[in-house]
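Q: Here's a chain of 232 amino acids. Please give me its 3D structure as C-alpha coordinates.
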Amino acid sequence: MNLNNLVNDAMQTIQKDGFVEEVIKKQLETTIKKVIEDYFGSYGDFRKELENHVKEQLQIDMRKLGISGYNLMVLNEVKSQLNAALHIQGVQKIKENMEQMLVGIKPEYKLSELIEAMKEDENDDHERDGEKISFILEGEEDGYRHIYFDPESESRESWRSERSKYSYKYQLHLDKEGHVYDSKIDGLNLSSNKEIMTSFYHFEKLMFRIFATGAKVIVDEDEVDTYYGEEY
Protein backbone atom coordinates (compact mmCIF):
# COMPACT_ATOMS: atom_id res chain seq x y z
CA MET A 1 0.00 0.00 0.00
CA ASN A 2 1.41 3.39 -0.97
CA LEU A 3 0.65 5.77 1.90
CA ASN A 4 1.65 8.89 -0.01
CA ASN A 5 -0.83 8.07 -2.76
CA LEU A 6 -3.61 7.67 -0.20
CA VAL A 7 -2.81 11.04 1.37
CA ASN A 8 -2.65 12.76 -2.00
CA ASP A 9 -5.96 11.23 -3.05
CA ALA A 10 -7.59 12.34 0.18
CA MET A 11 -6.25 15.86 -0.17
CA GLN A 12 -7.58 16.11 -3.67
CA THR A 13 -10.99 14.90 -2.52
CA ILE A 14 -11.04 17.43 0.35
CA GLN A 15 -10.01 20.18 -2.02
CA LYS A 16 -12.73 19.20 -4.50
CA ASP A 17 -15.39 19.17 -1.72
CA GLY A 18 -14.40 22.70 -0.50
CA PHE A 19 -13.63 21.45 3.01
CA VAL A 20 -10.56 23.61 3.44
CA GLU A 21 -12.40 26.72 2.36
CA GLU A 22 -15.22 25.93 4.78
CA VAL A 23 -12.85 25.40 7.72
CA ILE A 24 -10.99 28.62 6.95
CA LYS A 25 -14.27 30.48 6.63
CA LYS A 26 -15.57 29.22 9.98
CA GLN A 27 -12.32 29.98 11.73
CA LEU A 28 -12.19 33.48 10.28
CA GLU A 29 -15.78 34.07 11.39
CA THR A 30 -14.94 32.90 14.89
CA THR A 31 -11.80 35.04 15.01
CA ILE A 32 -13.51 38.16 13.64
CA LYS A 33 -16.42 37.67 16.02
CA LYS A 34 -14.03 37.40 18.94
CA VAL A 35 -12.16 40.55 17.89
CA ILE A 36 -15.37 42.50 17.49
CA GLU A 37 -16.69 41.29 20.85
CA ASP A 38 -13.45 42.19 22.56
CA TYR A 39 -13.40 45.64 21.01
CA PHE A 40 -17.05 46.51 21.38
CA GLY A 41 -17.77 44.49 24.52
CA SER A 42 -18.51 45.80 28.02
CA TYR A 43 -14.81 45.88 28.88
CA GLY A 44 -13.44 46.47 25.37
CA ASP A 45 -11.35 49.31 24.03
CA PHE A 46 -14.29 50.76 22.12
CA ARG A 47 -16.22 51.29 25.34
CA LYS A 48 -13.25 52.97 26.98
CA GLU A 49 -12.70 55.21 23.95
CA LEU A 50 -16.41 56.00 23.79
CA GLU A 51 -16.52 56.85 27.47
CA ASN A 52 -13.53 59.16 27.14
CA HIS A 53 -15.09 60.84 24.12
CA VAL A 54 -18.41 61.37 25.87
CA LYS A 55 -16.66 62.78 28.93
CA GLU A 56 -14.78 65.23 26.74
CA GLN A 57 -18.00 66.35 25.07
CA LEU A 58 -19.89 66.60 28.34
CA GLN A 59 -17.64 68.95 30.23
CA ILE A 60 -19.86 70.02 33.18
CA ASP A 61 -18.59 72.60 35.62
CA MET A 62 -20.21 71.58 38.91
CA ARG A 63 -19.50 75.03 40.29
CA LYS A 64 -21.84 76.51 37.70
CA LEU A 65 -24.75 74.21 38.41
CA GLY A 66 -25.98 76.33 41.34
CA ILE A 67 -26.03 73.46 43.78
CA SER A 68 -25.61 75.84 46.70
CA GLY A 69 -28.54 77.83 45.40
CA TYR A 70 -30.59 74.68 45.22
CA ASN A 71 -29.63 73.81 48.78
CA LEU A 72 -30.64 77.30 49.88
CA MET A 73 -33.95 76.91 48.06
CA VAL A 74 -34.62 73.63 49.84
CA LEU A 75 -33.59 75.16 53.19
CA ASN A 76 -35.88 78.14 52.67
CA GLU A 77 -38.77 75.87 51.77
CA VAL A 78 -38.24 73.76 54.88
CA LYS A 79 -38.01 76.93 56.96
CA SER A 80 -41.18 78.27 55.37
CA GLN A 81 -43.07 75.06 56.09
CA LEU A 82 -41.76 75.00 59.66
CA ASN A 83 -42.71 78.62 60.27
CA ALA A 84 -46.18 77.95 58.88
CA ALA A 85 -46.60 74.98 61.22
CA LEU A 86 -45.30 76.95 64.19
CA HIS A 87 -47.59 79.86 63.34
CA ILE A 88 -50.66 77.62 63.24
CA GLN A 89 -49.69 75.91 66.48
CA GLY A 90 -48.72 79.23 68.07
CA VAL A 91 -52.02 80.90 67.18
CA GLN A 92 -53.92 77.93 68.53
CA LYS A 93 -51.86 77.96 71.74
CA ILE A 94 -52.42 81.68 72.22
CA LYS A 95 -56.12 81.20 71.63
CA GLU A 96 -56.26 78.41 74.22
CA ASN A 97 -54.29 80.48 76.72
CA MET A 98 -56.48 83.52 76.19
CA GLU A 99 -59.63 81.45 76.65
CA GLN A 100 -58.26 80.02 79.89
CA MET A 101 -56.98 83.34 81.22
CA LEU A 102 -60.20 85.24 80.50
CA VAL A 103 -62.57 82.69 82.00
CA GLY A 104 -64.56 84.20 84.87
CA ILE A 105 -63.44 87.78 84.27
CA LYS A 106 -65.84 90.43 85.55
CA PRO A 107 -66.70 93.66 83.77
CA GLU A 108 -65.74 95.72 86.81
CA TYR A 109 -63.78 95.46 90.06
CA LYS A 110 -63.50 97.61 93.13
CA LEU A 111 -60.04 98.90 93.94
CA SER A 112 -60.41 97.64 97.51
CA GLU A 113 -61.21 94.20 96.11
CA LEU A 114 -57.97 94.16 94.11
CA ILE A 115 -55.90 95.25 97.09
CA GLU A 116 -57.39 92.46 99.18
CA ALA A 117 -56.66 89.91 96.43
CA MET A 118 -53.02 91.01 96.34
CA LYS A 119 -52.68 90.80 100.12
CA GLU A 120 -54.18 87.30 100.19
CA ASP A 121 -51.77 86.18 97.48
CA GLU A 122 -48.78 87.65 99.32
CA ASN A 123 -49.77 86.65 102.85
CA ASP A 124 -51.26 83.17 102.61
CA ASP A 125 -49.08 82.09 105.55
CA HIS A 126 -50.00 85.20 107.61
CA GLU A 127 -46.37 86.09 108.24
CA ARG A 128 -47.08 89.65 107.15
CA ASP A 129 -49.98 90.23 109.50
CA GLY A 130 -49.77 93.74 110.90
CA GLU A 131 -47.49 95.02 108.15
CA LYS A 132 -48.51 97.72 105.73
CA ILE A 133 -48.42 97.66 101.93
CA SER A 134 -47.26 100.58 99.78
CA PHE A 135 -50.13 102.43 98.14
CA ILE A 136 -50.40 105.66 96.15
CA LEU A 137 -53.47 107.03 94.39
CA GLU A 138 -53.12 110.04 92.08
CA GLY A 139 -55.24 112.02 89.67
CA GLU A 140 -58.91 112.97 89.63
CA GLU A 141 -58.62 116.56 88.48
CA ASP A 142 -58.62 115.55 84.81
CA GLY A 143 -60.63 112.40 85.38
CA TYR A 144 -57.70 110.02 84.92
CA ARG A 145 -56.56 107.98 87.92
CA HIS A 146 -53.12 106.48 88.53
CA ILE A 147 -52.73 103.74 91.11
CA TYR A 148 -49.43 102.40 92.42
CA PHE A 149 -49.28 99.60 94.98
CA ASP A 150 -46.75 97.07 96.21
CA PRO A 151 -46.87 94.16 98.69
CA GLU A 152 -43.78 95.53 100.45
CA SER A 153 -44.03 98.29 103.01
CA GLU A 154 -42.16 101.53 102.43
CA SER A 155 -40.52 101.17 105.85
CA ARG A 156 -39.91 97.42 105.88
CA GLU A 157 -36.44 97.85 104.47
CA SER A 158 -34.68 101.15 105.06
CA TRP A 159 -32.80 101.06 101.78
CA ARG A 160 -36.14 100.97 99.94
CA SER A 161 -37.81 103.70 101.97
CA GLU A 162 -37.16 106.39 99.40
CA ARG A 163 -37.99 104.32 96.31
CA SER A 164 -40.01 105.80 93.48
CA LYS A 165 -43.66 104.98 92.94
CA TYR A 166 -42.62 103.75 89.48
CA SER A 167 -40.71 100.93 91.15
CA TYR A 168 -43.88 99.60 92.80
CA LYS A 169 -44.74 96.11 91.64
CA TYR A 170 -48.21 97.00 90.36
CA GLN A 171 -49.53 99.98 88.43
CA LEU A 172 -53.02 100.67 87.11
CA HIS A 173 -53.92 103.64 84.91
CA LEU A 174 -57.61 104.41 84.42
CA ASP A 175 -59.34 106.62 81.89
CA LYS A 176 -62.20 108.99 82.74
CA GLU A 177 -64.73 106.14 82.72
CA GLY A 178 -62.57 104.06 85.03
CA HIS A 179 -61.46 101.52 82.41
CA VAL A 180 -57.86 100.29 82.51
CA TYR A 181 -55.92 101.66 79.56
CA ASP A 182 -52.45 100.80 80.81
CA SER A 183 -50.94 98.53 83.44
CA LYS A 184 -47.55 97.39 84.67
CA ILE A 185 -46.33 94.42 86.65
CA ASP A 186 -42.77 94.54 87.97
CA GLY A 187 -41.95 97.23 85.42
CA LEU A 188 -43.38 95.14 82.59
CA ASN A 189 -45.68 97.23 80.41
CA LEU A 190 -48.58 94.98 79.46
CA SER A 191 -49.50 97.09 76.45
CA SER A 192 -46.18 96.51 74.69
CA ASN A 193 -44.75 93.22 75.98
CA LYS A 194 -45.00 90.22 73.66
CA GLU A 195 -44.21 87.53 76.20
CA ILE A 196 -47.27 87.89 78.38
CA MET A 197 -49.05 84.64 77.60
CA THR A 198 -47.26 82.44 80.12
CA SER A 199 -45.66 84.97 82.45
CA PHE A 200 -48.23 85.52 85.18
CA TYR A 201 -49.76 83.55 88.02
CA HIS A 202 -52.25 84.17 90.81
CA PHE A 203 -52.82 87.89 91.40
CA GLU A 204 -50.57 88.83 88.48
CA LYS A 205 -52.87 86.83 86.21
CA LEU A 206 -55.87 88.75 87.55
CA MET A 207 -54.09 92.01 86.78
CA PHE A 208 -53.48 90.85 83.24
CA ARG A 209 -57.11 89.77 82.83
CA ILE A 210 -58.32 93.19 83.91
CA PHE A 211 -55.97 94.90 81.49
CA ALA A 212 -56.70 92.51 78.59
CA THR A 213 -60.46 93.07 78.81
CA GLY A 214 -60.30 96.77 79.66
CA ALA A 215 -62.36 96.09 82.76
CA LYS A 216 -63.58 98.97 84.86
CA VAL A 217 -62.04 99.66 88.27
CA ILE A 218 -64.20 101.48 90.77
CA VAL A 219 -61.98 103.63 92.98
CA ASP A 220 -63.42 103.17 96.46
CA GLU A 221 -60.46 104.78 98.18
CA ASP A 222 -62.10 104.92 101.60
CA GLU A 223 -62.54 101.14 101.59
CA VAL A 224 -58.92 100.34 100.77
CA ASP A 225 -57.22 98.59 103.69
CA THR A 226 -53.45 98.96 103.41
CA TYR A 227 -52.62 96.55 106.26
CA TYR A 228 -52.15 92.80 106.21
CA GLY A 229 -54.32 90.72 108.49
CA GLU A 230 -56.14 92.02 111.58
CA GLU A 231 -53.17 93.07 113.71
CA TYR A 232 -52.82 96.81 113.17
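Q: Can you summarize the key feature?
A: The helical segments are 3-17, 19-40, 45-57, 67-101, 111-122, 203-213.
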